[in-house]
Amino acid sequence: MTYVVREAAEDETDAILQVARAAFGSEQDDEIATLIDELLRDPTADPRLSLVAVAVDDDVIVGHVIFSRADLPQSPLAVSASILAPLAVYPDNQRRGIGGMLIVEGLKRLRSMGIDLVFVLGHPAYYQKHGFSPAGVRGYDAPYPIPPKHAEAWMVQELRAGVIGKTHGQVSCAQALDDPKYWQED
């Protein structure tokens, strides 16, 4: 099957929320779906980028990612940043490279928008394959403390060369994402 990644349309929210509910399972489904819905409506998340992966054969949305605004208010250098959260792919469509397609296209678009850094809290082995590396050791603190045993799950990717090393501080995020429950890694 062939997939394309494109910007999500406003009338696709229900389909996006269905993907999230299926991808995250019964325990987290409503929490993650609520987060996505809130991020899509949150003006403090701008500039925001919402992308969907669509199966070409049947025009069905099978994956979604959202990137929302982030700031480094204590940084000595002005920087434009974003947070990748969440990324979801229907379980039947996982392990086909769809999540990676969403990440790659998102990073490409963010770079063209002038975003300097992208942060994510997720599985290190997965996100490191897509160019992310631990953020804490580089001087970037998450909006809420990350337990030491999960420190490598808080990651950053530089989209403009030379930003890492000249910036640091605690990342702030959109209001919808500004809740300690979203900053725990299992």
Short description:
26% of the residues lie in helices and 27% in strands.
Task: Explain how this protein is built.
With 186 residues, the chain is an alpha+beta fold. Helices cover 26% and strands 27% of the residues. The chain has one domain: Aminopeptidase. The protein contains three helices and ten strands; from the N terminus they run E-H-E-E-E-H-E-H-E-E-E-E-E. Strands 1, 2, 3, 4, 5, 6, 8 and 10 form an eight-stranded mixed beta sheet that branches. A two-stranded parallel ribbon has the order 7-9. Helix 2 links the parallel strand 4 and strand 5. It is globular, with a radius of gyration of 16 Å.
Keywords:
186 residues; alpha+beta; Aminopeptidase; eight-stranded mixed β-sheet; two-stranded parallel ribbon; 3 helices; 26% helix
Distance from N terminus to C terminus (CA atoms, Å) equals 32 Å
Report on the biggest sheet. 8 strands, mixed
Please indicate the percent range of residues in DSSP E strands (runs of 2 or more). 25-35%
Number of domains: 1
Q: Rounded to an integer, what's the Rg over CA atoms?
A: 16 Å
Count, helices: 3
Q: What is the CATH homology-level superfamily? A: Gcn5-related N-acetyltransferase (GNAT)
Helix content: 25-40%
- What is the CATH class name? Alpha Beta
Shape, principal axes of CA atoms: globular
Write the element-wise H/E pattern from the N-terminal end onward. Answer: EHEEEHEHEEEEE
Question: Which architecture per CATH?
Answer: 3-Layer(aba) Sandwich
Please state the average pLDDT score: 94
User: Spans of 5+ residues with little confidence (pLDDT < 50)?
Assistant: none
Structural class: alpha+beta
How many strand units? 10
CATH topology: Aminopeptidase
